[in-house]
Amino acid sequence: MHQRTTPPTGSAPTTGRRRMARKALLAASALGVVTALMAPVRAGAAPAPASPTAATPLAANGQLSVCGRQLCNDSGQAVALNGMSTHGTQWYAQCVTDGSLNALAQDWRADVLRVSTYVQEGGYETDPAGFTARAQKFVDAAHARGMYAVIDWHMLSPGDPNANLSRAKTFFTAMAKKYKNHPGVLYEIANEPSGVSWSGIKSYAEQIIPVIRAQDPDAVVLVGTRAWSSFGVSEGSDEKEVVNNPVRASNIMYTFHFYAASHREEYLNALDRASDKLPVFVTEFGTQNYAGEGANDFTMSQRYLDLMKRKKISWTNWNYSDDHRSGAVFKTGTCDGSNWTGTGVLKEAGVWIRERIRQ
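The chain above was modelled as a monomer; its predicted structure follows.
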């Protein structure tokens, strides 16, 4: 959907032992938030103290699952997570720091961080062990601040996820083995498939999901859809191909991506229709054009956000970096400094999306 250069199901059962392990991790995470927030968000200034009575998103909601068409917490109540996606960690790891994540959790009040591990473009394929460790570091940092983490396998080119099938099996085995007892992860197994049929994507999903389930049977898995996760709209199709031929797996959601300045009524209507029949998570969107650049269209963006709020659809915005494009929330050079809070360090899109997350 964008180019960058630099069946509704019930939840899986949880064993008593696994449930106890996850509760212990939640308790440890809640205690760890205080420690994490001690890292200064600005040179020479201590962060505002965390309220001892305010539960973090992770502590408040616990293990997530898919119930009907909704993402639900451990009490079976529908929830919608709102947060940010990192840029590619091969380029912008310096934007994911103690200070920036303190700001995201505390100043922005985000529920979730999407950790984007590119497969190509200088990413995972160049150093599988190194990029796995980097992803785990950032997931752990999100958890320490009480946020959920989406583990994003950011395949983009080639657009057929099957081209990286063996790499994906290795990566997700390692990630699921590490987080099998942690309630704070969601696995996004294919960022933006393109130039491949829905049946090809479905086949890939039905090979990767069992790899994850062998280690972590409880976590929600997010499945990319055709044509840059547009439910096929960008290649002349629509959501019916998924509705009529869903992935054979439980506790899954389907992803949808949009860029409001480029993706207009046809895309908005597809999201509305699809979410009437399928569990949907918008793991990436921008207020600009499909390349994440150019002028912001906040009016169209707000229409999408209003729809997602009404239907309790979770979302993460692209992206939490200081890339020169208008879609990166920080002003260029911010990640070289130590001030992350407030609106002075933000581009126009950053000011806008921070306010929507805080609401």
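The mean pLDDT is 89.
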